Amino acid sequence: MALSPEISIITVVFNDRDHIEKTILSVLNQTYKNIEYIIVDGKSTDGTLEVISGFNEIAVVISEPDRGLYDAMNKGLQVATGDYVWYLNSGDQVNTGDTVRTMVNGLAELPDIIYGGTMIIDEDQNEIGDRRLKPPDQLNWKSFKQGMVVCHQSIIVKRQIAPAYNLKYQISADIDWVIRAAKSAPVIHYSNMVLSKFLEGGLSGNNIKKGLKERFQIMTGFYGFVPTLLRHFLFGIRLTNFYLKNRRI
User: Fold this and answer.
1) What are the pLDDT digits (tens) for 137-183?
2) What is the pTM assigned to this prediction?
3) Which residues pair with 60 in a beta bridge?
4) In this structure, are residues 164 and 60 in contact, taking their beta carbons and an 8 Å threshold?
5) Angstrom distances, CA of residue 244 to CA of 133, 205, 211, 239
6) By three-state DSSP, how is residue 217 classified?
């Protein structure tokens, strides 16, 4: 018998009128229709909500102030009713119109987590390339010792094991979330597909530094201080060598 799980796709947005429509269309134009689409808007003031209001097919729209990205993501999780939750924030897109159907057709059972690859795109929708970190063929919670080996936009988690985001982390709660989800997942399935497109964007220097500090704290909690310190030291050496090799003179 063909499987047909309901997938709750959750989009968080705040003042992003320029990108939200592409995200919405990538979900609503899926050939697979057993999708519950939820948008959590942080009370935008730039016309974002007017764009959202033009689509009657969206199952749930929440528009109210929040305490940041992860608080908004928790709100989406609280109202979701599907078998799975999938976070695609504003600017992200489902890879193609047939991605969800193809992914579901590739399932022999309903795993606890489904994951895949991610394509990076620019503002003009040009494909820049795959992420530097490739998803492993076999994923478990220890895989994230190497960093975010699966992009948050390309990991789909059974709602019954999906944890709430830890709001003490303001930048890196996503890696904490995926590790905790993976620890609770006996069956993890690699789709062997590119599941999402991720809009390339920059963080400020302060956010990068804060995010790295949070990530170090998270990974130390899961994997221990000394192993985490050693991996970050080796990563720093590789990153320095990469920039020295590729810098423009």
Assistant:
1) 999 999 999 889 999 999 999 999 999 999 999 999 999 999 999 99
2) 0.90
3) 38
4) no
5) 20, 20, 23, 9
6) helix
